[in-house]
Design goal:
The structure holds two protein chains of two kinds. By secondary structure, chain A is an alpha+beta fold. Chain A has one domain: BirA Bifunctional Protein, domain 2. Chain A has five helices and seven strands. In chain A, strands 1-2-3-7-6-5-4 form a seven-stranded mixed β-sheet, with helices on both faces. In chain A, helix 2 runs antiparallel to helix 5. Chain B is mainly beta. Chain B contains two helices and 15 strands. In chain B, the strands form three sheets. Chain B has a seven-stranded antiparallel β-sheet, covered by helices on one side. In chain B, a hairpin with a 3-residue loop joins strand 2 and strand 3. The two termini of chain B are 21 Å apart. The chains are: A alpha+beta, B mainly beta.
Chain lengths: 176, 153
């Protein structure tokens, strides 16, 4: 199935956009990408700092059972870490179940959201990766970092997103 | 109005109640509700067999014959794995949010609760239009798989 990128300058949340699209009939592997999120969030509504420069995207996943979705959510951390290592030679650490750390600081957030009535209607995996963020706010400096801060240079967001999505597709095929 | 009807030597107890907007027909404990405004089977439930009708349009002609035409539609039910008069937890987890309150009238697809489980956020939405009778859980409460969360009227 074709990957269909829906690109936005700024949205409140790429996952909220993706869920709306999914409920109006968008196909699996539709990917909502935004340069900036004004209301990016993690689990329990925790805010995800999402300024311009970072990589924020949400993928409408094919219908799968809940166990496979959980496995994929955990495998997403491995795929992201592998992508960072392969492209930039960094040594990310995976803090189980699904946090990716660089130098002990968080670099990535992954949240899978399912909409369920009598069965799973749709699943969206949201990923926020701190890529080209030059500086983090004071309250995040001790706990988070970005690829640009670590590498002291800008990275290629497009190359990273393509590699992550291909990795997820390959994993889901294996799971299914 | 209570009726006893006989079809092919078998007798059925039928109860019919109607107002300006809907007709409720209860046949041997199985209830079918026909929304006259939207001409749809709004809700129908068989608690014994967990049989529930999907929303389906009632043909134009049925409005003239009301319950009779609708009953034919109501008989073409589909069997769903669960649902009915309550919402159960699809998996074990923690209730991270509750979007409704007791007494609320909700519509199909409306967000009811959010269940945080296995590093995923699961938004549980209404299968059909209904009225909420009881909410059995609180925010931040742990729930087991299949535990009843909400009961409908």
């Amino acid at each position: 199935m074709q990957i269909d990128f829906k690109k936005f300058e700024a949205v409140a949340s790429t996952s909220d956009e993706a869920k709306k699209l999914a409920l109006s009939g968008a196909e699996p592997w539709t990917v909502v990408v935004a340069n900036e999120q004004t209301g990016g969030h993690g689990r329990k509504g925790d805010e995800w700092f999402s300024p311009t420069g970072g990589l924020y995207f949400s993928i409408i996943l094919p219908k799968s059972n809940i166990e496979d979705l959980q496995t994929l959510t955990i495998l997403a951390a491995f795929i992201i870490a592998k992508t960072i290592k392969e492209i930039y030679g960094l040594e990310p650490l995976i803090k189980l179940p699904n946090d990716v750390l660089l130098n002990g600081k968080k670099i990535c957030g992954i949240l899978t959201e399912n909409i369920i009535d009598k069965e799973i209607k749709t699943s969206v995996m949201g990923i926020g990766l701190n890529t080209n963020i030059k500086e983090l706010p004071a309250e995040l400096k001790g706990i988070a970092t970005s690829l640009e801060i670590e590498l002291k240079k800008e990275v290629d967001n497009e190359k990273i997103i393509n590699q992550i999505i291909e990795g997820l597709r390959a994993q889901l095929e294996i799971l299914n | 109005m209570n009726l006893r009807i006989k079809i092919k030597d078998k007798e059925y107890d039928v109860e019919v109640a109607e107002n300006d907007h809907e007709v409720r027909i209860s046949i041997q404990g199985k209830e079918f509700i026909f929304d006259l405004d939207k001409r749809k089977v709004k809700y129908a439930n068989d608690p014994e067999n967990k049989t529930e009708c999907a929303q389906r349009n009632i043909p134009e002609g049925s409005q003239r014959s009301r319950g009779e035409g609708g009953a034919k539609e109501g008989l073409s039910c589909v069997v769903l794995p669960k649902g009915g008069k309550e919402v159960k937890a699809p998996l074990a987890g923690v209730i991270s949010d509750i979007f409704v309150k007791e007494g609320d009238t909700i519509t199909m697809g409306q967000k009811l609760v959010s269940l945080s489980a296995m590093k995923m956020e699961n938004e549980i939405v209404a299968e059909a239009d209904a009225k909420i009778k009881k909410i059995l859980v609180n925010k931040d409460e742990k729930v087991k798989e299949s535990e009843t969360l909400i009961i409908f009227d």
